[in-house]
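so i finally got all the pieces together for this one. its two components total, 646 residues if u count the protein bits. some of the lines might not be protein, just check the labels. i wanna see the whole assembly predicted at once instead of chain by chain like last time, that was a mess tbh
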Amino acid sequence: MAKKNLAVGIDIGGTNTVFGFVDREGNIVAEGRMTTCNYEKAEGYIAALYEKIMLTGKEIKQGFELKGFGIGAPMGNINKGTIEYSAALPWKGVIPLSDIFHAHTKLPVIVTNDANAAAVGEMIYGGAKKMKDFVVITLGTGLGSGFVVDGKLMYGHDGFAGEIGHTPVRPESSDRECGCGKKGCLETYVSATGLKRTFIKILADSRQPSEFRKYSFDAINAEMIFNAAKKGDKLAIRAFEKTGKILGYKLAEVISHTSPEAIFLFGGLAMAKDLIFKPAKKYMEEYLLSIYQNKVKLLPSKLNTKNAAVLGASSLVWSNIES
Amino acid sequence: MAKKNLAVGIDIGGTNTVFGFVDREGNIVAEGRMTTCNYEKAEGYIAALYEKIMLTGKEIKQGFELKGFGIGAPMGNINKGTIEYSAALPWKGVIPLSDIFHAHTKLPVIVTNDANAAAVGEMIYGGAKKMKDFVVITLGTGLGSGFVVDGKLMYGHDGFAGEIGHTPVRPESSDRECGCGKKGCLETYVSATGLKRTFIKILADSRQPSEFRKYSFDAINAEMIFNAAKKGDKLAIRAFEKTGKILGYKLAEVISHTSPEAIFLFGGLAMAKDLIFKPAKKYMEEYLLSIYQNKVKLLPSKLNTKNAAVLGASSLVWSNIES
């Protein structure tokens, strides 16, 4: 039997690192995880990670040929193979991730941020297989975006294209503080954290009875608000509507920049389905210039599984081989 | 002597059409013009235009080989070679400009909007010769934008990428009506017309004496405001500052989408130099996410001459040949 080609996808998060061996069709044949934050230096972390990956590879029964490593990491820079000044990770400054990795392997190592990895994943395995121009918006703790233009991931001049999470929703008139040091960034409204902040402000303005008045800010999370909204809680539904509306007009703006065929929503908040898609679609169409209206598809990511980040990271390897 | 290669650049405006025979270095060797609005049908207009171009070509002394026609037109669609629903032109609906032109010639005919033509012109003849990722913003009666991504003009899925003139400055809180039917679009603030509207509102709020109180809305234009600002008129300077500020934070947003090496300002308002560049640069940097700060050049277009639009249109031919 011919050897199967596999790629390793690695998702580096602030707390945990998850990885998997993935085939060209997006099947994960082996996987593993380790903590990210136990290593003072990136070199030690990578050495431990590489060893763990190799051990996991030995468990795979079928013969395979490894084609490379794809890494999704906060502030990952695809031009340079680095992580730069990531607030989420334990190592400060510019970390030459790809170089450190190459001390262990001669195979290709491609580094990018989670949202770019999700965009390539959508193109290689997901709903954008036949698309040349599309956008993926990742809605997690923050908001990321990856743009594919004419069949290729858009890097920009310095490898940092697609940071729309830090564009303002209302310049100069928002008090909502962002982790980046500015106020009123899109991700302070449209993300799991943003939904919660909006919900708690709605709760404070309203006089309506709510079980949530018993919980602290820290105790409330997006999933609780989602469950309440599903049961018909009006304040929770209003929080989703407001979040979707802000997302909708930012999507109109995104379309005016790059004129995509589709926009995919990826991650936790996107799983709230109609609660977020309905207002987002409505206000997106309302704010769109007429030449774009009723043309651009707003779709859930087809990678929306627990392994989505690993899939996205692994897809970088196939994309690198096939381009 | 070898024949010189020439391209015809055509700039179609609502009132006049201007064209020129241009060499690869951006020298215009012959030019001409005709009215746009005398022709009820696009077919008749194109027939007359083609004849006029051929007559002008006969005046060129040196032997040359014509390589194609580049056309810049409002709502020109590069994917389809059409003009679509342009409010500025006399022909309604979708006009298959390239097809109509091909009744007269077998040479390539490339159609796009003025801003995309300006972007390609900057790359072929101007300040972006060695750049692969940059943006051109055209500031005329309206505001257009052309994006070059990885060395190629970004069209988007339907050929309409780069309509940032119709993204909102402040969603839901602007009363300023736009020609597109929406309110508060960027071009209602940042354009020759936008500057004038802002200036007249500043005049209405202020109690400061001003010669402009003698002039009607219709009698005031951007050039008068520019001349007043140069002489130190505080209200005129304030209008430029406000316009530059709004431009500045929109530029920050543009950078967060595509991460360009440089942004070029093109057209009348850009010729106001520091009056517009200083506030635009200041607020652009202020609103930028730190990873982009002090990296992106804000530059005047090197095509800023009276023939810029013809140059831009002609460059489409070279770009088509060389890509």
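Chain A has two domains: 4-126+306-322, 134-300.
The radius of gyration of chain A is 20 Å.
anyway lmk what u think
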